[in-house]
Amino acid sequence: MEKQEKKGFFRGLMDKISGISTVAEELDDQVEIPSEAPSVPEPEMPVEPAKPKISEEPVKPGLFERLKMGLKKTKDGLVGRIDALVLGKKEIDADTLEELEEILITSDIGVKTTVELIRTLEQRLGRNELKDGEALRRALKEEILARLTAHHSLLEINSHRPFVVLVIGVNGVGKTTTIGKLASRFSAEGKKVLLAAADTFRAAASEQLVIWGQRSGVDVIHHKEGADPSAVVFDACKAAVARDVDILIVDTAGRLHTKVNLMEEMKKIRRVIGREIPGAPHETLLVVDAATGQNALSQARLFKEAAYVSGIALTKLDGTAKGGIVVAVSHEFALPVRYIGVGEAIDDLRDFDPQEFTDALFQA
Amino acid sequence: MFDSLSEKLESVFKKLRGQGVMTEENIKDALREVRLALLEADVNFKVVKDFIENVRTKAAGTEVLNSLTPGQQVVKIVHDELVAVMGGNESNSLNLTAKPPVAVMMVGLQGAGKTTTCGKLGRHLKSQKRRPLLVPADIYRPAAIEQLKTVGRQLGLEVFNSSADQKPVDICTAAMNFAELNGYDTVILDTAGRHQIDDYLMNELSEIVSAVHPLEILFVADAMTGQEAVNVASGFNDRLDITGVVLTKLDGDAKGGAALSIKAVTGKPVKFVGVGEKLDALEVFHADRLVSRILGMGDVLTLVEKAHSVFDEKETERLQQKLKKSQFDLEDFLAQLQQIKKMGSLESIMGMIPGMGKMMKQMQGAQPSEKEMKRIEAIIRSMTPGERANHGIINGSRRLRIAKGSGTSVQEVNQLLKRFTEAQKMVKQLQKLGPKGLLKGMGGLGKGMLPFG
Q: First and final CA of chain B: distance in angstroms?
């Protein structure tokens, strides 16, 4: 295509001019390229604001309970339907598996992962391992757990100093909020934290991060709106070294993974970090909204290609959103899920635990 | 992936050739592909189920004889049916006819794009000679109010002065009074993002509704939302009786199947779509275009419309004349380049063309085109008017000068001239054939783009 494209450059154009442009030929003019302004991420929208809640329960439930509560709806969707399908079944046949396939796909688990899960179950069925519905359910749980465990590892921030975390994602997934929570968490652990407000595009994005910084008593390096994000990052890296901090977290503007120029901007940010602090960023955290559907796979693929994503943070699990997409993203791209956001308060960011997650998912 | 739906169907139907009628049996496979395509586009499974049932009834018994490609026929049935589900061409304009000030309220999950949409809508209304007032009522997210104020500043729109220590209901009521006193006819309320199961915050929205009686309650939904869209939309609709939907972030590669689900469960029309990060990237929704996108059929209509609005009619007219006389020169070529450039980014245009999904990706990796464009521009701009009118006079030393002037090499100048000569030849040949024969197969699309239609 590439070569043909080049050859056809004029031709396509002439075609268009002379009125012969068929749809196919339109492809030939690589002509319409007014570059969108280099950094124009759509203002990232509010995410999980810490807010005064009147309906707050007096006693905070334990972690597991909270996760379960957060996952309750996920369960209603995924497990409720699986139960309805398999329980009481004396025999598992092809039709059952086909229905199961549909349930998995519609839980945002993703087509590829689903097909693979079903194939594995088919094999086990073939070996007569799955005698009834209960066995099928157990097997499915095992398989999902295995896929989540396979790539699981938590973030080890003591390996480098300063440890640099670059936080990226599409617009409105909750990057800034996640960073706010991370900052509070690390500083509570006694680490010295520095934040870099490299989202210079969205209106009031740095202000948002500064407020988070104040909440957890953490310094924020920020420039004026519209500044070059790489410049912010440069200053932040210098400051991180000079102030001898333990961890530097870089907030970036939300960007759709299909915007080439914005992805280039992100690569540049990475380059600047790597130049100032060799080996950094040590973690590139892709933030994914739990309500996202199949598009999360596309996000993960393109961000991974452009920015070497090394971990996932799954946000907004406190809604009714299904967590299914984690299974697909983690499995298909061999990426560990590091954190999950299960609420709107500053401490509502949890380490991801595959066992716990799967248990909560399958809790009757 | 979806670009291949038509292809997949083709292969399913290959074995059907020669059979006269599509039977339930032989469309079963095709419908499975359709079902997967819809599920992959994040259309809710219940919606898909009902939908497939409809298509099955319609498709069974349809004559295949007249149609060369039964696959296309199924796609067409699916397409038409989807358009019907999406409300076809029913009106989706905003209802703002009441005694001013009228209120428009934005609601939705966190991060759906409410604040940005407020700004875009304000701009849209302003261009329609209304006087909108933006009201930040998100007191929860840090700096949310500041964000809307900044957006307002960028757009030259008035933003109501609220602060985070006020109650949202009070802000909205006060803003309505302010608008009435100061002659604003439309008040756009930006509320905080919330989950539909959050009773406290949902009550807050109900309170605002009963206080200011907004004529439009727009549910802002992220096009990337998965199966969840149904729960969220019906949650908001049950509580607030929304009047319409705004689908955001459609400029990415999400298929936007969520819109279909939302429409199916709430019955409320999608009124606008957000297609970019700039504050002018808000478009009126067209059901058939979204459906084409979901099915991977491209969005030729939008492309054509875009081209039409951008191409300068007079300029096109002039070019036509020149072309007819075979006088098309480099100067015209440059002008044409400029016009095409105005149409938008390469990616956004490519995305509208059927079957371009995959190619787009390859293009993005390489991305030579923008540079090439600039270089061509530079080369042509380095020529004298005489050279532009008649490139035959460009000899060796002129080439060297042009190359130096444009910061390119003589080889590149040569290449450009060679291609231009070829193109010119081709135009001449095409002239001989006449436009009629050439337009065949285009099905009349793209009239606006064709200088001699």
A: 34
Angle formed at CA B4 by CA B265 and CA B358, multiple of 5 degrees: 105
Cross-chain CB nearest to B362 (options A1, A6, A17):
A1
Domain ranges of chain B: 3-85, 102-297, 303-449
ipTM over 0.85: no
- Which of A1, A20, A23, A32 is the mutation pick for testing B, counting most B CBs within 10 A? A32
Q: Tell me the C-alpha distance between B400 and B407, whole Å.
A: 10
Among A152, A163, A108, A88, smallest CA distance to A328 is for: A108
Would you place residue A12 in the very low, low, confident or very high pLDDT band (cuts 50, 70, 90)?
very low
Q: Which of A299, A260, A268, A25 has its CA nearest to residue B369? A: A260
pLDDT tens by residue, A315-355: 988 876 666 788 889 988 999 999 999 887 888 898 998 88
Single-letter residue type at B206: S
Distance of alpha carbon B347 from alpha carbon B359, whole angstroms = 10
Is A260's CB within 8 Å of B350's CB?
no
Q: Are A249 and A194 in contact (CB under 8 A)?
A: yes
Tell me the residue type at B408. T
Q: Exposed/middle/buried for B418, CB within 10 Å: 0-12, 13-18, 19+?
A: exposed
Q: pLDDT digits over B378-410, tens only?
A: 888 899 988 888 888 888 899 999 999 988 889
Residues B88-134 have pLDDT tens digits of: 666 778 888 888 889 999 999 998 999 999 999 999 999 989 999 99
Long-range contacts of A13-16 (CB under 8 A, 24+ apart): A13/B333, A13/B336, A13/B337, A13/B340, A13/B423, A14/B328, A14/B423, A14/B424, A14/B426, A14/B427, A16/B336, A16/B340, A16/B449
Contacts of A51 in chain B (CB under 8 A): 140, 192
Over chain B, what is the mean pLDDT?
77
Most A CBs within 10 A among B201, B265, B277, hence the mutation to make, goes to: B277
Type of residue at B21: V
Closest to B33 (Cα-Cα) out of B74, B77, B68:
B74
Give the H or E element holding residue A236.
helix A229-242
At residue A313, the pLDDT reads 94
Q: Please state, as a whole number, how many other Cβ atoms lie within 10 Å of the Cβ of residue B64.
A: 19
Quick check: A177 pLDDT over 60?
A: yes
CB contact under 8 Å between A256 and B249, yes or no, is yes
For the structural domain made of B102-297, what CATH number should be given? 3.40.50.300
Supply the CATH classification number for the domain B303-449: 1.10.260.30
Q: Report how far apart, in Å, the C-alpha atoms of A114 and of each of A42, B40, B453 are.
A: 32, 12, 50
Grade residue B49 by pLDDT with cuts at 50, 70 and 90: confident
Hey, is the C-beta of A69 within 8 angstroms of any chain B C-beta? no
CATH superfamily of B3-85: SRP54, nucleotide-binding domain (1.20.120.140)
Give all strands (DSSP E) within B138-241, no chain letters.
158-159, 186-191, 216-222
- Predicted model pTM: 0.71
B374 Cα distance to chain centroid: 26
